[in-house]
């Protein structure tokens, strides 16, 4: 594995995104229909505003369930809460030419598992710990002999 390769070679670029006014119901449906765990929030020409992790979304859903008198109330809240309410705004970002090693260092030093990749203030991809594992797993093994 070469940690000096650019993240653009391993990042996920076919992304599902939402706008800041997307409802919690829409976000839940997206997470229920897809295997991914991070949903970028964008506006206009793919300008990144924030990111919502599946874990953070379900933490909010759990708190709602504790604060409500029933499912009907929670369902109504899902129509009121928006992506802007749920997202982590101003997430740390990388650029496509940043290295795989840098992304790995950031993941190891922090508690998150996805970093948006931006170019000219526009979201172009997402690098995840899963992407790095796949890259490592699929890389040829080079053994050095003394």
Automatic annotation (TrEMBL):
UniProt cross-references to SUPFAM superfamilies, sorted A to Z: CBS-domain pair
The keyword Hydrolase belongs to this UniProt entry's keyword annotation: no
Matching InterPro entries: CBS_dom (IPR000644), CBS_dom_sf (IPR046342), Diverse_CBS-Domain (IPR051257)
Taxonomic superkingdom: Bacteria
Keywords in alphabetical order: CBS domain
Bilayer-spanning residue ranges: none
Stretches assigned to the CBS domain: 11-68, 87-144
UniProt xrefs under PANTHER family: CBS DOMAIN-CONTAINING PROTEIN CBSX3, MITOCHONDRIAL, OS02G0818000 PROTEIN
Name of the protein described by the UniProt record: CBS domain containing protein
Annotated organism of origin: Haliscomenobacter hydrossis (strain ATCC 27775 / DSM 1100 / LMG 10767 / O)
């Amino acid at each position: 594995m070469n940690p000096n390769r650019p993240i653009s070679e391993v990042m996920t670029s076919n992304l599902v995104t939402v706008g800041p006014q997307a409802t919690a119901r829409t976000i839940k449906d997206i997470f229920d229909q897809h295997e991914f765990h991070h949903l970028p929030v964008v506006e206009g020409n793919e300008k990144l505003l924030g990111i919502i992790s599946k874990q953070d979304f379900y933490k909010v859903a759990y708190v709602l369930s504790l604060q409500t008198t029933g499912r009907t109330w929670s369902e109504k809240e899902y129509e009121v809460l928006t992506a802007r309410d749920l997202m982590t705004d101003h997430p740390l970002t990388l650029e496509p030419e940043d290295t795989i090693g840098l992304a790995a260092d950031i993941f190891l030093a922090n508690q998150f598992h996805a970093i948006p990749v931006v170019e000219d203030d526009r979201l172009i991809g997402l690098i995840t710990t899963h992407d790095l594992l796949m890259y490592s797993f699929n890389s040829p093994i080079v053994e050095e002999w003394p």
